[in-house]
Amino acid sequence: MNYMASITDFFRSPKWVPNLLLGAVCMLIPIVGPLVLVGWMVGPLFRSRDPVNFESFADFDFSNFGKLLERGVWPFLVNLVAGIVMVPVMWLLLALPIGLLVAGTAVTDPEKNSEALGLLAFCSIGLVVLLIAAAGCVVTLVIRPLMLRAAITQDFGQAFNFRFVKDFVARTWVEQLLSILFLVVAGITLMIIGMFAICLGAYLVIPLITFAQWHLERQIYDLYLARGGEPVTISPKLDSVPPSLLSS
Would 199 be classed as within a structural domain? Predict the structure, then answer.
Protein backbone atom coordinates (compact mmCIF):
# COMPACT_ATOMS: atom_id res chain seq x y z
CA MET A 1 0.00 0.00 0.00
CA ASN A 2 1.27 3.42 -0.99
CA TYR A 3 -0.85 5.86 1.00
CA MET A 4 0.91 9.06 -0.04
CA ALA A 5 0.55 8.12 -3.73
CA SER A 6 -3.22 8.31 -3.30
CA ILE A 7 -2.75 12.07 -3.02
CA THR A 8 0.39 12.79 -5.03
CA ASP A 9 -0.81 10.81 -8.08
CA PHE A 10 -3.51 13.42 -8.58
CA PHE A 11 -0.81 15.97 -9.43
CA ARG A 12 0.85 13.75 -12.03
CA SER A 13 -1.71 14.78 -14.63
CA PRO A 14 -0.54 17.85 -16.62
CA LYS A 15 -4.06 19.26 -16.20
CA TRP A 16 -4.34 18.77 -12.46
CA VAL A 17 -5.08 22.47 -11.84
CA PRO A 18 -8.24 22.66 -14.01
CA ASN A 19 -9.24 19.19 -12.80
CA LEU A 20 -9.03 20.35 -9.19
CA LEU A 21 -10.87 23.60 -9.88
CA LEU A 22 -13.64 21.92 -11.86
CA GLY A 23 -13.93 19.26 -9.18
CA ALA A 24 -14.37 22.01 -6.58
CA VAL A 25 -17.05 23.64 -8.75
CA CYS A 26 -18.75 20.27 -9.02
CA MET A 27 -18.95 20.05 -5.22
CA LEU A 28 -21.03 23.25 -5.22
CA ILE A 29 -23.82 21.41 -7.08
CA PRO A 30 -26.24 19.95 -4.50
CA ILE A 31 -26.64 16.16 -4.32
CA VAL A 32 -25.51 15.25 -7.84
CA GLY A 33 -22.17 17.08 -7.72
CA PRO A 34 -20.41 14.51 -5.49
CA LEU A 35 -21.88 11.68 -7.60
CA VAL A 36 -20.43 13.20 -10.77
CA LEU A 37 -17.07 13.60 -9.07
CA VAL A 38 -17.01 9.91 -8.11
CA GLY A 39 -18.17 8.96 -11.59
CA TRP A 40 -15.22 10.82 -13.08
CA MET A 41 -12.75 8.79 -11.01
CA VAL A 42 -14.10 5.24 -11.04
CA GLY A 43 -13.87 4.79 -14.81
CA PRO A 44 -10.11 5.33 -15.24
CA LEU A 45 -9.40 3.53 -11.98
CA PHE A 46 -11.48 0.38 -12.55
CA ARG A 47 -12.15 -0.01 -16.28
CA SER A 48 -9.13 -2.32 -16.52
CA ARG A 49 -7.01 -4.44 -14.20
CA ASP A 50 -3.89 -2.98 -15.80
CA PRO A 51 -1.88 -0.41 -13.82
CA VAL A 52 -3.36 3.09 -14.05
CA ASN A 53 -1.36 5.69 -15.96
CA PHE A 54 -1.94 8.80 -13.88
CA GLU A 55 0.02 11.02 -16.27
CA SER A 56 -2.82 10.53 -18.76
CA PHE A 57 -5.65 10.26 -16.24
CA ALA A 58 -8.98 11.34 -17.74
CA ASP A 59 -9.58 15.08 -17.53
CA PHE A 60 -12.73 16.35 -15.86
CA ASP A 61 -15.17 17.52 -18.54
CA PHE A 62 -18.60 18.96 -17.78
CA SER A 63 -19.77 18.05 -21.29
CA ASN A 64 -19.82 14.42 -20.07
CA PHE A 65 -21.93 15.31 -17.02
CA GLY A 66 -24.64 12.71 -17.73
CA LYS A 67 -22.22 9.83 -18.20
CA LEU A 68 -20.28 10.77 -15.09
CA LEU A 69 -23.50 10.95 -13.08
CA GLU A 70 -24.54 7.51 -14.36
CA ARG A 71 -21.24 6.06 -13.19
CA GLY A 72 -21.37 7.64 -9.75
CA VAL A 73 -25.00 6.95 -8.89
CA TRP A 74 -24.56 3.20 -8.20
CA PRO A 75 -21.96 3.48 -5.41
CA PHE A 76 -24.06 6.28 -3.92
CA LEU A 77 -27.28 4.24 -3.89
CA VAL A 78 -25.54 1.21 -2.41
CA ASN A 79 -23.97 3.39 0.29
CA LEU A 80 -27.34 4.99 1.04
CA VAL A 81 -29.27 1.72 1.35
CA ALA A 82 -26.54 -0.05 3.33
CA GLY A 83 -26.25 2.92 5.67
CA ILE A 84 -30.01 2.93 6.32
CA VAL A 85 -29.93 -0.79 7.13
CA MET A 86 -27.00 -0.32 9.51
CA VAL A 87 -28.61 2.49 11.54
CA PRO A 88 -30.91 0.21 13.63
CA VAL A 89 -27.92 -2.03 14.40
CA MET A 90 -25.98 0.93 15.77
CA TRP A 91 -28.96 2.02 17.88
CA LEU A 92 -29.20 -1.46 19.37
CA LEU A 93 -25.53 -1.32 20.33
CA LEU A 94 -26.00 2.04 21.99
CA ALA A 95 -29.06 0.82 23.90
CA LEU A 96 -26.89 -1.30 26.23
CA PRO A 97 -24.79 1.44 27.90
CA ILE A 98 -27.72 3.87 27.89
CA GLY A 99 -29.88 1.24 29.57
CA LEU A 100 -27.19 0.61 32.19
CA LEU A 101 -26.99 4.31 32.95
CA VAL A 102 -30.76 4.67 33.26
CA ALA A 103 -31.03 1.57 35.46
CA GLY A 104 -28.17 2.72 37.66
CA THR A 105 -29.72 6.15 38.08
CA ALA A 106 -33.06 4.61 39.03
CA VAL A 107 -31.64 2.44 41.83
CA THR A 108 -29.03 4.88 43.12
CA ASP A 109 -29.72 7.73 45.52
CA PRO A 110 -27.92 10.73 43.97
CA GLU A 111 -27.41 12.41 47.37
CA LYS A 112 -25.85 9.38 49.08
CA ASN A 113 -24.03 7.79 46.18
CA SER A 114 -23.00 10.70 43.99
CA GLU A 115 -19.51 9.26 43.43
CA ALA A 116 -20.86 5.87 42.35
CA LEU A 117 -23.38 7.55 40.06
CA GLY A 118 -20.64 9.71 38.53
CA LEU A 119 -18.46 6.65 37.93
CA LEU A 120 -21.38 4.84 36.31
CA ALA A 121 -22.04 7.81 34.04
CA PHE A 122 -18.35 8.03 33.10
CA CYS A 123 -18.16 4.32 32.28
CA SER A 124 -21.39 4.46 30.31
CA ILE A 125 -20.17 7.40 28.23
CA GLY A 126 -16.86 5.66 27.63
CA LEU A 127 -18.66 2.51 26.53
CA VAL A 128 -20.85 4.54 24.18
CA VAL A 129 -17.78 6.12 22.58
CA LEU A 130 -16.07 2.74 22.16
CA LEU A 131 -19.18 1.14 20.70
CA ILE A 132 -19.69 4.03 18.27
CA ALA A 133 -16.06 3.74 17.11
CA ALA A 134 -16.29 -0.05 16.78
CA ALA A 135 -19.64 0.09 15.01
CA GLY A 136 -18.35 2.77 12.67
CA CYS A 137 -15.39 0.60 11.71
CA VAL A 138 -17.58 -2.46 11.13
CA VAL A 139 -20.07 -0.47 9.05
CA THR A 140 -17.28 0.99 6.94
CA LEU A 141 -15.64 -2.41 6.42
CA VAL A 142 -18.94 -3.76 5.10
CA ILE A 143 -20.00 -0.77 3.00
CA ARG A 144 -16.68 -0.23 1.21
CA PRO A 145 -16.65 -3.58 -0.68
CA LEU A 146 -20.33 -3.06 -1.51
CA MET A 147 -19.53 0.33 -3.04
CA LEU A 148 -16.50 -1.14 -4.81
CA ARG A 149 -18.64 -3.82 -6.48
CA ALA A 150 -21.25 -1.23 -7.41
CA ALA A 151 -18.59 0.94 -9.04
CA ILE A 152 -17.00 -1.92 -10.99
CA THR A 153 -20.22 -3.68 -12.06
CA GLN A 154 -22.23 -0.45 -12.47
CA ASP A 155 -25.18 -2.31 -11.00
CA PHE A 156 -27.17 -2.09 -7.77
CA GLY A 157 -28.16 -5.74 -7.38
CA GLN A 158 -24.72 -7.18 -8.14
CA ALA A 159 -23.19 -5.04 -5.40
CA PHE A 160 -24.93 -7.04 -2.65
CA ASN A 161 -22.82 -10.16 -2.89
CA PHE A 162 -22.19 -10.91 0.77
CA ARG A 163 -19.87 -13.83 0.04
CA PHE A 164 -17.61 -11.35 -1.72
CA VAL A 165 -17.94 -8.87 1.15
CA LYS A 166 -16.95 -11.51 3.71
CA ASP A 167 -13.99 -12.64 1.63
CA PHE A 168 -12.88 -9.08 0.88
CA VAL A 169 -12.99 -8.05 4.55
CA ALA A 170 -11.17 -11.22 5.65
CA ARG A 171 -8.29 -10.58 3.25
CA THR A 172 -7.95 -6.79 3.54
CA TRP A 173 -9.44 -5.57 6.84
CA VAL A 174 -6.10 -4.31 8.17
CA GLU A 175 -5.40 -2.23 5.06
CA GLN A 176 -8.96 -0.93 5.06
CA LEU A 177 -8.70 0.32 8.63
CA LEU A 178 -5.30 1.90 7.96
CA SER A 179 -6.65 3.62 4.84
CA ILE A 180 -9.59 5.01 6.83
CA LEU A 181 -7.19 6.40 9.42
CA PHE A 182 -5.02 7.90 6.69
CA LEU A 183 -8.00 9.57 4.99
CA VAL A 184 -9.19 11.07 8.28
CA VAL A 185 -5.76 12.49 9.14
CA ALA A 186 -5.06 13.65 5.58
CA GLY A 187 -8.51 15.19 5.25
CA ILE A 188 -8.23 17.19 8.46
CA THR A 189 -4.69 18.31 7.64
CA LEU A 190 -5.52 19.39 4.08
CA MET A 191 -8.72 21.09 5.22
CA ILE A 192 -6.80 23.21 7.74
CA ILE A 193 -4.16 24.09 5.14
CA GLY A 194 -6.84 24.92 2.58
CA MET A 195 -8.77 27.17 4.96
CA PHE A 196 -5.63 29.12 5.81
CA ALA A 197 -4.52 29.32 2.18
CA ILE A 198 -7.74 30.66 0.65
CA CYS A 199 -11.26 31.05 1.97
CA LEU A 200 -12.64 28.37 -0.39
CA GLY A 201 -9.82 25.94 0.27
CA ALA A 202 -12.20 23.37 1.75
CA TYR A 203 -13.90 22.95 -1.63
CA LEU A 204 -10.52 22.25 -3.24
CA VAL A 205 -9.69 19.62 -0.63
CA ILE A 206 -12.83 17.52 -1.18
CA PRO A 207 -12.01 16.46 -4.77
CA LEU A 208 -8.49 15.58 -3.68
CA ILE A 209 -9.68 13.46 -0.75
CA THR A 210 -12.32 11.81 -2.93
CA PHE A 211 -9.58 10.91 -5.40
CA ALA A 212 -7.44 9.55 -2.54
CA GLN A 213 -10.35 7.42 -1.29
CA TRP A 214 -10.94 5.73 -4.64
CA HIS A 215 -7.21 5.47 -5.35
CA LEU A 216 -6.88 3.52 -2.10
CA GLU A 217 -9.89 1.41 -3.05
CA ARG A 218 -8.05 0.43 -6.24
CA GLN A 219 -4.90 -0.39 -4.26
CA ILE A 220 -6.84 -2.51 -1.78
CA TYR A 221 -8.70 -4.27 -4.61
CA ASP A 222 -5.38 -5.09 -6.30
CA LEU A 223 -4.11 -6.41 -2.97
CA TYR A 224 -7.25 -8.49 -2.56
CA LEU A 225 -6.74 -10.07 -5.98
CA ALA A 226 -3.05 -10.69 -5.26
CA ARG A 227 -4.08 -12.59 -2.12
CA GLY A 228 -6.33 -14.91 -4.08
CA GLY A 229 -9.57 -12.93 -4.08
CA GLU A 230 -12.28 -13.34 -6.70
CA PRO A 231 -12.16 -10.75 -9.53
CA VAL A 232 -15.27 -8.64 -10.08
CA THR A 233 -16.65 -8.57 -13.62
CA ILE A 234 -15.96 -5.13 -15.09
CA SER A 235 -18.98 -3.42 -16.59
CA PRO A 236 -18.66 -2.34 -20.23
CA LYS A 237 -20.31 0.92 -19.14
CA LEU A 238 -16.95 2.01 -17.75
CA ASP A 239 -15.58 1.96 -21.29
CA SER A 240 -18.64 3.04 -23.25
CA VAL A 241 -17.93 6.73 -22.82
CA PRO A 242 -16.37 9.53 -24.88
CA PRO A 243 -12.57 9.31 -25.34
CA SER A 244 -12.06 12.25 -22.98
CA LEU A 245 -13.20 10.05 -20.10
CA LEU A 246 -10.68 7.32 -20.76
CA SER A 247 -7.11 7.34 -19.54
CA SER A 248 -4.52 5.48 -21.56
Answer: yes
